Amino acid sequence: MKLFNKDDSMAVLDGKKRFNLDKALTITTFILLLIIVIIPVFMIIFNTFFVKATTGHWAFDVSMFKTQLSEPKNLSAMWNTVKIAILTTIVGTIAGVFYAWLLGRSDIPAKGLMKALFNIPYMFPPFLGAMAWDMLLNGRGGYFNKFLMRVFQLESAPININSIWGIVFVEVSYYFPFVFMQVVAALEKMDPTLEECARIAGAKQSTVIWRITLPLTKPAISAGALLILTTSLAHFGVPSIIGYSQGIYTLPTRIYAVIYNAGGSFEGIRQGASLSVLLVAVVSLALIIQNKILSSGSFDIIKGKSTRPTLIKLRGAKYPLLVICIVTLIIIVVVPLVMIVLVSFLKAYGLPLKLENFTFAQYKRVFKGGGTIDSIKNSLFASITAGVVCMLLGTLVAYVVQKIKPKNKGALEFMSMLPYAIPGTVLSIGVILAWQGAVFGINLYNTIWIIIVAYLARYLSFSMKTSSAALLQVSSSLEEAARACGASHTESLADITLPLIRPAMVSGFFLIFLPAMREVTTSILLYGPKTRTLGVQIYGLRDAGMIPQAAALATVAIGIIIVLNTLVNYIVKDRKGV
Amino acid sequence: MAEVKFEHITASYGKKTILKDFSLTVNSNEILCLVGPSGCGKTTLVRCLLGLMKPETGTITVGDRVLFDAKKKINIPAEKRNIGIVFQDYAVWPHMTVLENVSYPLKKRHIPKDEIRSRAMKALELVHMESYANHLPMQLSGGQQQRVAIARALVVDSEILVMDEPITNLDAKLREEMLLEIRMVQSRLKSTVLYITHDQQSALQLCDKMAIMELDGSLCQYGNDEDIILSPTNRFTFEFIGVSNMIPVSLQKDRICLDCGVSDSLDVEIPEGLDFSKPVEMGVRMNDVVFDNNSSIKAKVTSKVFLGSEYDYFLQLGNKEIRVQQSMLDAKLNGVPENGAMIGIRFVNPRFYPAKEVSSEAI
Q1: Given this chain, do its domains B4-236 and B245-354 carry the same CATH topology?
Q2: What is d(CA B44, CA B9) in angstroms, rounded to the nearest whole number?
Q3: Is residue B353 helix, strand or coil?
Q4: Which of A225, A205, A224 lies closest to A213, judged by CA?
């Protein structure tokens, strides 16, 4: 049977009649990244340094930037931001590595359970943690402070969470899992022969840990540390809740204050934009320094054959270390959770935590207005939309970068990873500047879509990374084999590549959906009267002094997160067989 | 079926030219083994044939079908070339069952469903995998996955079958089996096979014709396997095919003499066209060194290994260590020399090549 005759083969001329899928995908990716990422970033820089003169022309103007830079409040905010971020990164990294090693490599009991529990702080919204700690250790009448003062007959509160160290403590509690999870994964996949060889060569156990295990996990450690650093630099919730009462500002909270005080006027947004440039400068500097300190190639420590790594015997230290782990979990997970739930039942904030002061009224009150229901709906809608779009777009970018490899793929990769280094607060301002009609003639301000656009820019790199990793696993010969078997390029994509990376796409979706569901950093600057998100609603209730109501809604939010997360784990586990 | 013709192919990745004006013909119904060291451009040639890469110049034809012609701007897309391919890493799709994998090429050709099933099963029978039809690839061993890949390549009766290092990842025994099977399948289907490998041993077992590629991507010899083994055209082919000893020699009083600490003269004619003012080396295969106590050339046995059907020796000849193979027959007839013994040796069928220039970087 002859399948192809001479004539139809001659008819196909190269590059002329054939629609080139690769080119189309590459161009689409460029345009989308330009709109979603580059234009907001450009708008910030442009609006900081250019001003529309009365003649209608745009004129270069550094006065705004200079004014902001010479403002002492801004300088101290910058200093605070840097201090908090560096301290959080150092402490968080040490804690992350310590617990990762303990749970990944030692013979500590109940390891599986402990590993699962140590992932909880990752899901816990940091600003809810900050709320809880503020309730407990507020310098003026936190519940735990009051308790200590009563017991030890103290004049003043012994612990004041409303300080730089307080902020660092709360941030470390919720950010150390970044390092923990990366390092645990690296340790589990590490080829144990690497360590065994060192032992056989005569190295002591401690030498092996220092000279072999740690250096080999350095890429994982530095990746996690970088995540802590950039997240902390950009973080709004914790410093805002804990630092506000003491006048401790960081750049993100300062940007919020400036814009909030200006009542949304363009001048305020411009001020915010120039502060953003400052924040971006700080973040970039941090990234460069981090790169210098932790620069390291990636090692091929992961081998296809998986063998159980040898576990190190802790002997006498076993149970004391177990106790340390449990106490850590209690402090960072159980205590804040219990506190929030307890306060949510209080008739009024400040009343002693006794049964006669408890009521369900706060929950009724929270849901009565309808604003709460709307905020949950808004958050669900924005997160799901952003999750789906990011998943598709991220996969598209990953495919172009990993498989099509156009000449300028470096630029593409840079464009998609840029938001990773740009704080959510800054991105929000860029999105405001770009989407209030200035660039596209489309005004999204005060609609849910502006929040979604900001989520897209902020979370795109997440899904791109997961899809990228999955695509790297798909050998190009799989697609090529399909081509040779008679599948067109589009068919080989649909039949082979997409089914193979589908699980990664699904987990990429949840990687965006879950943080977007609980975030406050981005939406606090973008929400309109009808587009409050769940995070904004809680923040607003607390800001208005309705702390028990805020706690009630926070309890609901945590409930939602737990349910969703369980669902995710169930789904992801189910698909592992693919 | 059809012959495959590459003519004047030039192909490069970016600025690096891999193939330059490369021409090669695979005769109809024959197995051509293309042998060359890793990185010489074998896979690039396959990718050009499959349409996964576009050469800059030249033509590729299969029978009377033009697949690629740079001048006439013909470049048939990969999916329309109708070439069966077995990749080195199998490329069996992990999310499809064995049967789905093998059915895929038929599905893409819009063949009726029941016919797809019967043809796919027939292809699986050909490689003895019919009982695994509903398995997923990850439940199979490497060799079984390989068979699935071969079945998938065979299922559409392609005019040509390309195999790119298909058995490199298998263990020795399975490799042998697969080679026999490929041979049998080929003779049954009368297909034209282009078999790519860097392993000359399997090439010898399988091929009708052999082509040797040099590291710079040029074709250095093409012919029957006997020709290539017995009369290699240049030093590259000689050294690439089989283990060989390279012993420095020099010209003294119009005779070729050893030049490695000992300087016995050799009883050979001086080859023409070789410049003895530059260093020259003599190449001898390890089974072309014969123990002969009447020979004046003496070497010392340093160690020996028994390999089942032959002995492998390491001999010290002057300051040069050479390797010698002695067949069991010879060992039975003439005895096995002890370690440390001085024995006479004779070189059969020696060849002379200019010595490799030692680059200053290597020192």
Answers
A1: no
A2: 11
A3: strand
A4: A205
| Distance separating alpha carbons of residues A315 and A362, to the nearest angstrom | 50
Please report, for chain B, the start and end positions of each structural domain, with discontinuous segments joined by +: 4-236, 245-354
Residues 63-92 of B with CB under 8 A from A: 64-67, 73-85, 87-89, 91
Cα–Cα distance, A241 to A541 (Å, whole number): 12
Q: Which two tokens stand for residue A527?
A: 């929400």
CA A520 to chain CA centroid, Å, is 11
Q: What's the length of chain A?
A: 578
- How far the first Cα of chain A sits from its last, in Å, is 36
B156–A475 C-beta distance less than 8 A:
no
CA–CA–CA angle A372, A377, A380 (5° rounding): 125
Specify the DSSP class assigned to residue A229. H
Nearest-neighbour CA in chain B from A471: distance (Å): 14
Cβ neighbours of A486 in B, within 8 Å = 79-80, 82, 105, 108-109, 156
Say how far apart CA A180 and CA A174 lie, in whole Å. Answer: 11
Long-range contacts of A111-117 (CB under 8 A, 24+ apart): A114/A325, A114/A329, A115/A184, A117/A329, A117/A333
Element (H, E) at B73: none
**Hey, are the CB atoms on A484 and B94 less than 8 Å from each other?**
no
Work out the angle at residue B206's Cα, subtended by the Cα atoms of residues B205 and B207, and round it to the nearest 5 degrees.
115
Longest dimension (CA), chain A: 99
Question: Which ipTM score applies to this complex?
Answer: 0.78
Interchain contact A578–B (C-beta under 8 A): yes
Give per-10-residue mean pLDDT for chain B (363 aa): 87 85 90 88 89 90 90 87 86 90 91 91 87 90 86 85 81 80 83 87 86 87 85 84 84 85 83 82 88 87 88 89 88 86 88 72 39
Closest Cβ–Cβ partner in A475, A488, A491 for B89: A475
Query: What's CA A103's distance to the chain center, in Å?
Result: 24
* Cross-strand pairs, B320: B317
Q: Under CATH, which number does the domain B4-236 receive?
A: 3.40.50.300
The answer to whether domain B245-354 has CATH 3.30.200.20 is no
Q: Total structural domains in chain A?
A: 1
Q: Which is nearest to B194 in space by CA: B213, B210, B176?
A: B210
Nearest to A411 by CA among A59, A68, A134, A26: A26
Segment A517-558, tens digit of pLDDT: 888 888 888 888 888 999 999 988 888 888 888 899 999 988
Length of chain B: 363
3-state secondary structure string, B304-328?
Answer: EEECCCEEEEEEEECCEEEEEEEEH
Per the CB < 8 A criterion, the answer to whether B345 and B290 are in contact is yes
Q: How far does CA A120 lie from the centroid of its chain? A: 15
